[in-house]
Amino acid sequence: MNHNNSILFDGFQLLTMEPGEVPYGWLKNHRLLVEDGMITWIGRENPPAGAAHATTIEGDGKFLSPGLIDCHTHLVYGGNRADEWEQRLNGVSYEEIARQGGGILSSVRATRAASEDELFQSASKRVIGFMKQGVSTIEVKSGYGLDLESELKMLRVAKRLDDELPLTVIATLLAAHAVPPEFASRSDDYIDMVCKEIIPASVGMCQAVDVFCESIAFDLRQTERVFRAAADHDLKIKVHAEQLTNSGAAALAAEHGALSADHLEYLTTSDCDFLAKHDTVATLLPGAFYTLQEKQKPPVAALREVGAAIAIASDSNPGSSPMASILMVANMACTLFGLTPNEAIAGLTRNAAKALDATGTAGTLSVGKNADLAVWDIASPAELAYGIGHNPCESVYIRGRRI
User: Fold this and answer.
1) Residue range 5-30, pLDDT digits in tens
2) Quick check: 316 and 324 in contact, CB under 8 A?
3) CB of 287 within 8 A of CB of 261?
């Protein structure tokens, strides 16, 4: 053991985020020992002998939590869509803009035109913004390429973000995001290409495959084809489901063993049962609900009642959720959807880890997990979801290294 890589966090209030009766898994006036980038001990009494050589960081009653996890983003893209946002405020619907070749397709044009370096530079600025708010793990989807080379270009940028920035970046293939212009009125042919060319080529570059199942994107039959192709290549699955209508995609994804079903404004009570039964995480995206001025809220009470794991995420993207604040997501989840602050922070830690199949390394303060930690200058845990535009994150440690 290299004692130079040991840190003792002393006199902190730990928000372990372990499930149980104590909200936030709150441990007052505790110590936490980090050795070689891992959490090796948590307690109140004298730490193990190895801590004698550790660098001590005094908490003075501040809060220490797991690094936050943003489990649904679209952070790699060219251009932006402020003009479409203005159109929507002038009365044009999201669906109408999409049918006119705007929406996702305008981001596709800009992303295809951008070089890999340009995409990396713009995405890295966004990722660093999230890191400053305590984020230590972030998911990044493709989906603004919609052809083989552009989708792989986006996945290479995600890999570069993971390699060159200190946090963990988990890539998801979202080639089935929209029908590209060259396949207009031939969505089945495009799904053929996704299943037979893009998914096989992405193996080793992504953890999971995602589909946007919606009236303006792909139907249930096409979605299931993508799920089967992903499974054939040992890739996990996720789904954008029940955002604008109820399609049954969340239940279908759960039956196929999906890590998560995301959006879920039009989820039914029986769908909630499916998610809980199959251990599929319900990921709520209040930024998109807010930006699109939706009225139908996801059925939080029903999800809570059946014991489904609820994650929340930024859905940061240039169109429907130009969100740059993970703590604002927590606030919106509470204010708009009725989550408690404890549920919101669980949604950004242990349940977000579950949505990314990362519970072995992240999401709670637990012995044996990566020392991905955030220090907060707050008086109570609820403040993490209470402030609007406020960032009380004092410092962030990723695998034991202060960043």
Assistant:
1) 899 999 999 999 999 999 999 999 99
2) yes
3) no
Sequence spans of domains, the chain: 3-67+362-402, 68-355
Instruction: Determine the angle formed by the axes of helices 148-164 and 104-113, rounding to 10 degrees.
Output: 70
Coil vs helix vs strand at 399: coil
CATH of 3-67+362-402, one of 3.40.50.1460, 2.60.40.10, 2.30.40.10, 1.10.155.10: 2.30.40.10
Type of residue at 277? K
User: What confidence tens digit (pLDDT) does each residue in 352-382 have?
Assistant: 999 999 999 999 999 999 999 999 999 999 9
Task: Determine the Cα–Cα distance for residues 197 and 401; give it in Å rounded to an integer.
Answer: 40
What's the pLDDT at 51?
86
Cα 242 off chain centre by:
18
Residue owning tokens 């603004």: 144
Q: Which helix (H) or strand (E) holds 342?
A: helix 341-347
- Asked whether this chain's domains 3-67+362-402 and 68-355 adopt the same fold, the reply is no
- The residues, ordered by sequence, that sit 6+ positions from 192 with a Cβ below 8 Å of its Cβ are none
DSSP assignment letter at 4: G
Q: How far apart are alpha carbons 290 and 321 in whole angstroms?
A: 8
Whether the CB-CB separation of 292 and 315 falls below 8 Å is answered with no
Q: Any idea which architecture 68-355 has in CATH?
A: Alpha-Beta Barrel (3.20)
d(CA 238, CA 195): 15
How far are the Cα atoms of 62, 225, 348, 364, 378 from residue 23, in angstroms, in the given order? Answer: 17, 41, 14, 13, 16
